[in-house]
Amino acid sequence: MLFRRPDRAAWVVAAALFAAYSAMAVNRHHTMRTAGYDLGIFEQAVRAYAQLRAPIAELKGPAFNVLGDHFHPVLVLLAPFYRIFPGPITLLVTQGILLALSAVPVTRLAMEFLGRRAGVCIGLGYGLSWGIQQAAAFDFHEIAFAVPLVAYSMERLVHRRWSAAACWALPLLLVKEDQALILAAVGGYVLCAGSRRLGLLIVTVAVVTGFLTVFVIIPAFSPGQVYPYAKTASGSGMATLLTPMGVKGWTLLALVAPTLLLALRSPLLLIAVPYVAARFWTSNPAYWGTGFHYSAVLMPIVFIAALDGLRRLHTSKTAVTRVVRKSAPTAILAFALAVTMFGGLPLTRLLDAGDWQGTERFGPARDILDVIPDGADVATSNRLAPQLTRRCRVFRLIVPSPFWPLTEWVAVATSRPFPSPSPADAATIARLPQLGYRVVERGGGVVIYRRT
After folding, report:
1. Using one digit for the tens of pLDDT, what is the confidence trace for 90-104?
2. May I ask which residue range the UniProt record assigns to the signal sequence (predicted)?
3. 447 by DSSP, 3-state: which?
4. Domain with 387 in it
């Protein structure tokens, strides 16, 4: 049963976290700190689903089906809500709900082991962990669906409810192709700690489905008929898992530090190993560190492993272990608050009055964008894309080529050009007059061009 009366404190924690995540995300969007990569891309896909079309994201390319990039059919679940509330805010609020929901099993398990007050401390510490905050602050991503699934599955593993753990973990296959690694790890744990038959079945389903997804399903939708990220797999042997040691070692420490290393006391932590290894195996440095959203799905694994580690301390009656069990919840929350405040994590922006007043500064920019009519084809700077994807067909602004059509409209932001380097944006903008574009409106740091 998802909701029980004794769980009220856990749901209060989740509600508080939802309010914080959503307020931060919506404010980021209103102050134009969201981007086409990735909020705009996901909105285009969800908008297509809501219109009963294939999930085409023009920001990735004309007629580009996002299932040829990553396998995330779970996004279909957002379509009914998008029909009622069309716009990027729907995605951001949904992500806040999903991330906050993952705190319920963590808090509930902590209350079961340590008491109500200690459980609330652990739940808040989890919700403030850097991995969750980074995901809540970085646009929208499909892994928001994975985080609560992993959390509920891990809770069932602690209680040795193997079938229930499998039921919560199996939908991970519909979230993203790399989640098959976590499902396989769950199966491996069940195989070793409980039901061999069920564990072997879970591992088999994860491996077979993961293989088919990467080598058959995604290539079938991909323009190149291949898995687009295969080229990032490193071929340098096992040594690549730990090199460069500095950034990867720091990431490993950062993963267990929010639990004061208590996660290391539980074999449940091993469930994170395949996913972390896959990240470290890639040649793309973006996966190695603590930035972006890549570690969010690991946070419930780490925290529930820590709770299992604290439970194992209960068998020891020494004075030290009693002190650890009693002080750990408060220390975990204090650590999370300290890292948030002094580590510059995203939720600190909620306390910045200037950040909230800043929404008014972007009113002129939004007024300028209103010049572009609904339903128009427009190429935009990355930061402007999600301001238009609700009502326009939006392309990424690059030097025109046979794969990128010349749109009637172009919207250019004069700052924050990620992911394109500034020189490339500048070169594209310089070519616009040669391609028949003229300035029709400017203001608020935005310039609108129209092709005549």
Report:
1. 999 999 999 999 999
2. 1-25
3. strand
4. 361-451
